[in-house]
Automatic annotation (TrEMBL):
Residues 15-42 form a coiled coil. It comes from Anaerofustis stercorihominis DSM 17244. It comes from the Bacteria. Keywords: Coiled coil. This is Septum formation initiator.
C-alpha cells in the first residue's frame, strides 16, 4: 500500500513539473513568434544592428559607463 502511495506522489510531482515546463515553453514560443512577426520592422532591425553589431547613426552619440562604478 505504501509503495502505491509513493508511486502516486512521485507521478503527481512529475506531472506538476511537466505542466510547469509546458507553460514556460508556451511562453517562450509566444515571445519567439512575436519576435518573428516584428522581424521586418525598421525599428527591430535597428535594435539588432545596435545590440549585436554595435552600429550607430553618424550623428548619434554613444555614452559608455563603467559597470564597476555603479556598485
Amino acid at each position: 500500500m505504501l509503495t502505491m502511495e509513493y508511486k502516486y506522489y512521485s507521478l503527481n510531482k512529475q506531472k506538476n513539473e511537466l505542466t510547469q515546463q509546458i507553460s514556460e515553453e508556451k511562453l517562450k514560443s509566444k515571445e519567439l513568434n512575436e519576435e518573428l512577426n516584428n522581424s521586418d520592422s525598421k525599428s527591430y532591425i535597428e535594435y539588432l544592428a545596435k545590440k549585436y553589431l554595435g552600429l550607430i547613426y553618424p550623428n548619434e552619440k554613444v555614452y559608455v559607463t563603467n559597470e564597476k562604478d555603479k556598485k
